Amino acid sequence: MAAQLRVYAPFETEHDEMQSPSVNIRLGDLLPLLAFAKRNNYLWVQDFLEDEVTVTSDLYDVIRSFSSQRRPSA
């Protein structure tokens, strides 16, 4: 007798949409891997492009400042 499979889908709530960070990783370990995957067009990278990441406030300030410096002048 063949086994029957059941598929259960959890109820989606607002809480389910945003996962809490569950793993800490050094930026120095993460960036080279992401850069390699992006450069080589690994498709899985696209799955995470809309995800949000949490950074420290000082890193955010540096990124924001760097971003404004890179913009071409009008």
Task: Based on the model shown, name its key terms.
74 residues; mainly alpha; 0% strand
Outline the fold blueprint.
Blueprint: H1 14-17, H2 27-39, H3 57-70
Account of the protein in words:
- 42% of the residues lie in helices and 0% in strands.
- With 74 residues, it is an all-alpha fold.
- The protein has a domain of 46 residues.
- It is elongated, with a radius of gyration of 19 Å.
- The mean pLDDT is 82.
Outline:
The chain is mainly α. It contains 3 helices and no strands. The model has no long low-confidence stretch (mean pLDDT 82).
**What is the strand content?**
under 5%
Structural class, please? mainly alpha
Mean pLDDT: 82
Q: Based on CA inertia axes, which overall geometry fits?
A: elongated
Low-confidence stretches: none
Binned, the helix content reads 40-55%
Encode the helix/strand succession as letters.
HHH
For the sheet with most strands, the description reads: none
What is the CA-atom radius of gyration, in angstroms? Answer: 19 Å
SS summary, helix count: 3
Separation, N- and C-terminal Cα atoms = 72 Å
